[in-house]
Amino acid sequence: MHQVKLESVRRNSGGRIHLTPKVPRSGPVTTLCGQTLEAGSFAANDAPPDCANCIRRSRDQARISGAFFAQEEGSELLRLSLEQARERTQSREPDLRVLPHPSEKDKPVVWPAPKPPAEEIPERLGELVTRGFKSSGEGVWRSPVGVIVKMRKHGRDWRFAEVVFEGEIVATRTDRGLRLRAGDVEVAPDEDGFEVRLRKKT
User: Fold this and answer.
1) Within 60-117, where are the H helices?
2) Fewer CB under 10 Å: which end of the chain, C or N?
């Protein structure tokens, strides 16, 4: 247990040795027995106190606290109080409670973000039979082997406009017009124009 340390003070002209919280460097000092010694009339003393009232009041915690705060030395009491509290905390029995592992705590349920419904592609878009093609933008379609078919909107309908392919392209004249084969895509003449579709596997 930390004890409050008091200092001894004595009049320069002699007399009893009193107790005080702290001997100031300047100004008056108030002793534990209630006397006020004016500035320059006292000095610190290393001898034990012989004032009966100071000795008796040094055993009274309330008197000591009041004297410390009267001399604005309350910070010293606060420091001692904190040290006592720290020692009490350290001397307690260790806390043997079993705490749950962080991984065992309830984890919040993370719901997947709702996905927009897949855009339905009609089986036919004007002159294009869409089965097997993938849309690459408005009016642009790509076949599995990379043939690009460009369609152009004509009124409310879509008409074949262009085929782009880096491989071999074969054009054949028929009774109805011109048949074009590029990779896995076939452009064949139809009654009203053309039909663009993936070639049937042979």
Assistant:
1) 61-70, 74-91
2) C
